[in-house]
Amino acid sequence: MTTQQIIEKHPPTKDNILEILHDIQTNNPDNNIPEEDIRQVAKYLNTTYAAIYGVITYYSMFSTKPRGKYIIRLCKSPVCRMVGSFDVLKSLTNKLNIEIGETTADQLFTVEFSECLGQCDKAPVLMINDELYTEMDDKKVDNMINSLKKNSK
Amino acid sequence: MIQETKIALRNAGKIDPLSIDEYLKSGGFQGLKKALDIEPVKIIEQISDAGLRGRGGAGFPAGMKGRFTDEAICHYCGPKYLICNADEGEPGTFKDRIIMEQDPFPLIEGMLISALSIGAGKGYIYIRGEYTESIQKLKNAIDQCYKKGFLGKDCLGENLSFELELRYGAGSYLCGEELTLLESLEGKRGYPRIKPPFPAQKGLFGCPTLINNVETFAHIPYIMQHGSEHYKTFGTEKSPGTKIFTVSGDVKNPGYVETEMGVTLEQIIELRGGMKNDKPFYAALLGGAAGTFVNKEVLRTPMGFDTLKEKGAILGSGAIIVMNRERSIYDIMESILEFFKHESCGKCVPCRVGTNQLLIMLHQMNEKKNGNNEKVLEKLKQEAEYVAENSLCPLGASPILPIGSIYKYFREDL
């Protein structure tokens, strides 16, 4: 589906901005909203490029820069941190050989922090795109990354 | 041992959350049926009489909010909106998620009753984008309600339609604040508005708007079905009804409980199996990041909006993070202040600069206990008070809650 087709699924009112942006980003293999798409959204909603850009950069789930196929969002809120989310981060960055906020060279993984994911009874947790992974540890990180790598071959 | 009492979660685990038929069989939409038989103003009266207080954290009387929105029609005469705040993001809180995942229909029924009471024709559920399972369950519930005629044209009687739409947030804690949520729903950056005007007078698109939390809406069908007198038999005089508490940290079985208000922290911990590995209780963080730390002095205080206030604590969203002696209050505080720094929207200076300063000040604490930490804490408290007084929205007013409570209960432990 082209960006224009995605946009036109939604009514052209400003209160649909977040829906449109979610839709564009989810359908983009690079998990981002590029400049050209922002222009199209602005035109469709009869507003400025700056208005749309402002909205995108405000919300932490959106990105204008290309990201990996899998976005790993690691919860760093108090509960997850208490039970070791920083250890999970270490496992992730060691395994993927990137720092937080970076994307792997093969464009598969991006690691980001997230605030509380509301799964505190199963901490530490992380999300990969729409999937939730709970009670994470070094071994689980290993298995998870391996199986995702295998799937995308 | 104390028993759980379920109102918001009365069907949870018993019926299929994907099936409206099962909800109907279990007595669903009976509250709405009763509400349709009485005058709208009586619905608001009944909610007021029940003493229902907002379950999102502030504990504002739900009936009063309804009345303000209802009366606002005379001044503006525009359309009115109803919004369910499902942007649950307070650290340690997952009660709304449990409601939406396990039994989303009472929430919709509660919204229908509220729409009827204030005469709203359109409603939104603003849910956080990360709650994928809740989103799926709600989508399904809304679809089924449309199919059965509970939503849509003339669903509340002749010429009384109610349309309900789902809207997703995109990772902003602040959008859970009601006025910021309105900005976000209107398609703007999530910057808070100055109040007054309150949403009841001038809310979404400038029209009177009633905003309630998921748990608040989920209580309304029960109140309508069983009456306010019955509802008041649960809980305490000033905080009637039940509350979902989400318990995490050093307890044996982290999870949630729904009990009457007025239950004690000790009883809640017991319901979740007691302390993990039987290590003694040291501290609990009540209400999440915008919450308060308490020590064992508060273990037997009844949990209610006012009873906790007397102890310098808050009930907030019902989040309870339990800690044993091995946990460091400093680490948790650092995580909280990083959180506020990250989530501060930057619109007003006291909060934008202040949340950053607070974190820098906290880092001045050192591990050697030479009296310096107490001085830093004192300064931290002063600064947090200043930020709270001068910020535009509740986010800037929040850091003083945990900092003030550390000052009160854990000054000597830092």
Give me the CATH fold name of the largest domain in chain B.
Rossmann fold
CATH topology heading of the largest domain in chain A: Glutaredoxin
What share of the residues of chain B does DSSP label as strand, in percent?
5-15%
In one word, what is the shape of chain B?
A: globular
N-to-C SSE string of chain B, H for helix and E for strand: HHHHHEHHEHEHEHHEEHEEHEHHHH
CATH class of the largest domain in chain B, anyone? Alpha Beta
Description of the structure:
The complex is a heterodimer of chains A (153) and B (414). With 153 residues, chain A is α+β, with helices and mostly antiparallel strands. Chain A has two domains: 3-58; 70-151, Glutaredoxin (3-Layer(aba) Sandwich), CATH 3.40.30. Chain A has helices at 3-8, 17-27, 35-44, 49-58, 78-82, 85-96, 138-151, and strands at 70-75, 109-114, 126-128, 131-133. Chain A has a four-stranded mixed sheet, with helices on one face. In chain A, strand 3 (126-128) and strand 4 form a beta hairpin. Chain A is elongated, with a radius of gyration of 17 Å. The mean pLDDT of chain A is 95. With 414 residues, chain B is an alpha/beta fold. Chain B folds into three domains: 20-232, 3-Layer(aba) Sandwich (Rossmann fold); 242-324, Ubiquitin-like (UB roll); 329-413, NADH-ubiquinone oxidoreductase 51kDa subunit, iron-sulphur binding domain (de novo design (two linked rop proteins)). In chain B, the strands form two sheets. Chain B has a five-stranded mixed sheet. In chain B, helix 8 (132-147) links the parallel strand 2 (122-127) and strand 3 (163-168). In chain B, helix 2 (30-37) runs parallel beside helix 7 and helix 14 packs antiparallel against helix 15 (349-362). The two termini of chain B are 35 Å apart. In chain B, 55% of the residues are buried. The model of chain B has no long low-confidence stretch (mean pLDDT 94).
